[in-house]
Amino acid sequence: MSVLSFFTWCENSSLAEAIRQSRWLFPAIESVHLLGLAVIGGAVLVLNLRLLGLGIKRQPAAQLWRDTRPWLLGSLAVMLISGGLLFTSEAVKLYYHEAFWVKMISLLLATVFTFTVLRKVALADPSHVRPLWCKAAATASILLWSMVGIGGRWIGFS
Ligand code: HEM
Fold first, then answer.
1. Taking CB atoms and a 6 Å cutoff, what residues make up the pocket around ligand 1?
2. CB neighbour class for 64 (10 Å; exposed up to 12, middle 13-18, buried from 19)
3. Measured between alpha carbons, how far is 152 from 127 in angstroms, rounded to an integer?
4. Of 38, 45, 46, 58, which has the fewest beta carbons less than 10 angstroms from its beta carbon?
């Protein structure tokens, strides 16, 4: 099955049809998508501002990683489910849309980076990790997650 035929199969599904036929389902799902965006944005910013030496300075980065991780995972699940539903309703349009592929590649890179490099830097003993590495990792993380959001908005604009 090619990627295009899979996208076509998704768009022709009865679920996708129901979302397209409904006047309120797509905006309702997109509202959940935006609420998830607010939570994931908050979780990403709290930790990255700390690694940049800003934000909640009283808390060690390792503690903030542990506190924000459930929110990050929970909101990521909400984004994947709500995004997946939105995707089915207009899958073939998204197949031909570079913004969708920029968003999906950025989402993959942002997620892998967060649970590998950023996690390692956040959990490292502060006396063993140079502040420059913390700032570089936080800056890369903010840029990657911003690309996901920009990709999402870019889809809506076109
Ligand atoms: C953390 C992950 C994600 C973030 C931060 C994100 C962000 C966004 C943003 C900012 C919008 C624009 C909302 C608006 O202003 O109207 C959007 C829309 C959308 N997203 Fe996501 N998204 C994520 C995951 C996903 C996933 C996994 C998919 C699909 C597999 C997806 C599919 C869509 C679609 C189809 C739209 C609607 C575009 C339209 O208006 O036609 N998103 N997303």
1. 30, 33-34, 37, 40, 76, 79-80, 83-84, 86-87, 90, 107, 148-149, 152-153, 155-156
2. buried
3. 39
4. 58
Q: Quote the tokens at residue 112.
A: 């892998």
Residue pLDDT, tens place only, 47-82: 999 999 998 889 999 999 999 999 999 999 999 999
Q: Please state the pTM of the whole predicted model.
A: 0.92
21-34 tens-digit pLDDT: 999 999 999 999 99
Helices and strands (H and E) in the chain: how many: 8, 0
